[in-house]
Amino acid sequence: MTTIEKARLLKLLYQYRCCGFEYFKEYKPANVVSKNSSGSFEELNDKVQSCHICTISKNRKNVVFGEGDKNASLMFIGEGPGANEDESGRPFVGKAGMLLTKIIENVLGLKREDVYIANIIKCRPPNNRVPTMEEVSACKPYLLEQINSIKPKIIVALGSTSYHHLMGEYDMPISRIRGEILEFGTAKLIPTYHPSFLLRNPSAKKDVFADMLKVKKLL
Ligand code: URA
User: Measured in angstroms, how far is the CA atom of residue 8 from the centroid of ligand 1?
Assistant: First the structure.
């Protein structure tokens, strides 16, 4: 297949995907499909590892699928992988991740591995820019499948990108909505500030502390 043919095919597949077709089920290069897929979560991971729907997949080092307890009651959803996450294939492992881990352990009294941590998108956008609507449309269905499978009781949306794309409320500032207890299917969704924001604005830590106390009460 020529490069132009490939590009045309990818564009067409992307359009189908935006319409809700799961056409990429057909796209499973043999070398990336795990032989011991044991359940739908693992199959989903296999599918995501071979995803090339949007352009940022081209420059990724690793897909950051998400990690934690697949039966967790609590799920944290950030924006997208940064450099450390792209390098390691794991979510929230840089400075912001260290702060998130502290929040989970010291405020919620849980272990990091007891919760599930994921992002709105699974590949690192160039220079850590905010993901585009196209990228989110291509990637969010994977996250929704994860949420569907984990069935968390509580989802914490970390930062405005996460909140906006989960709730479809693109004009609401995170400073106004944080700490509210919202409905997300059968789960409660609580938006709060992103840990990267806290690193730049330590005075907002008290707000996140208050939001986490609400989470703790609901668990
Ligand atoms: N910021 C995010 O939103 N997600 C990560 O995984 C890391 C940093």
Answer: 32
